[in-house]
Design goal:
CATH class of the largest domain: Alpha Beta
Shape: elongated
Distance between the termini: 40 Å
Strand content: 15-25%
Strand order of the largest sheet: 5-4-3-6-7
Bound molecules: benzoic acid
CATH architecture of the largest domain: 3-Layer(aba) Sandwich
Number of strands: 11
CATH superfamily of the largest domain: Glutaredoxin
Helix content: 25-40%
CATH topology of the largest domain: Glutaredoxin
Radius of gyration: 19 Å
Structural class: alpha+beta
Oligomer: single chain
Length: 211
């Protein structure tokens, strides 16, 4: 049974280049981005892990911790991290799970045999502080991910968890939001002090409430 949005994610303890990582303890009260990549010493993965490291201030601003995973050993990760640091102008300081026994990959459905036999594809899981799965995306091995998109989704989730809005196409932090359908326009006008524009009865826009 694959994981679905809203599920409590399964806990695990697995080795990494930083020692044993327990997901629930590591995540604690933070959001977690768990992402798999096919293998160490591969070019696209090298750029991805470098970017996640360079984005450290952006993760911290949002109370997010990152965990990478591949089915290589911790020793291999340590050697590869030297290359990532050298070539990507960063210092990788987050755990890369050493999932050589595929314990976590199998638990999270990260191996897609018809795509990459026995290697993890590019899966991304956004997990909230209550350990609920809030997003999962799977990319093919040949396509590097856009981690600004992952940050954008986290911005949307953190906003919409606390305000009765949703975020429209291509939304980014600071843009106008959509009023959720469950609120009448009259109630929305009372709720959103910055105003509500009714384009259609079902399409109401309001400035981002927490800006
Ligand atoms: C890469 O990370 O560069 C890569 C890995 C597996 C297949 C294709 C590309």
């Amino acid at each position: 049974m694959s994981l679905q949005l809203g599920d409590t994610v399964p806990d695990f303890t697995q080795d990494s280049q930083l020692g044993q990582i327990n997901l629930y303890d590591f995540g604690a009260d933070s959001w977690v981005v768990l992402f798999s990549h096919p293998a160490d010493y591969t070019p696209v993965c090298t750029t991805e892990l470098g970017e996640v490291s360079r984005l450290r201030p952006e993760w911290e601003k949002r109370n997010v911790k990152t965990i990478a995973l591949s089915v290589d050993s911790a020793e291999s990760h340590n050697g590869w991290i030297c290359d990532i640091n050298e070539t990507q102008n960063t210092t990788v300081d987050y755990p890369i799970l050493a999932d050589a026994d595929k314990k976590v990959s199998d638990l999270y459905g990260m191996i897609h045999p018809n795509s990459l036999n026995n290697l993890t594809v590019r899966s991304v899981f956004i997990i909230d502080p209550n350990k609920k799965l809030r997003l999962q995306i799977t990319y093919p091995a040949s396509t590097g991910r856009n981690f600004h998109e992952i940050l954008r989704v986290i911005d949307s989730l953190q906003l919409t968890d606390h305000h009765s809005v949703a975020t429209p196409v291509n939304w980014k932090d600071g843009d106008d939001c959509v009023v959720v359908p469950s609120i009448s326009t009259e109630d929305a006008r009372a709720k959103f002090a910055k105003g509500v524009t009714e384009i259609k009865p079902y399409l109401r826009m309001t400035p981002q409430p927490n800006k």
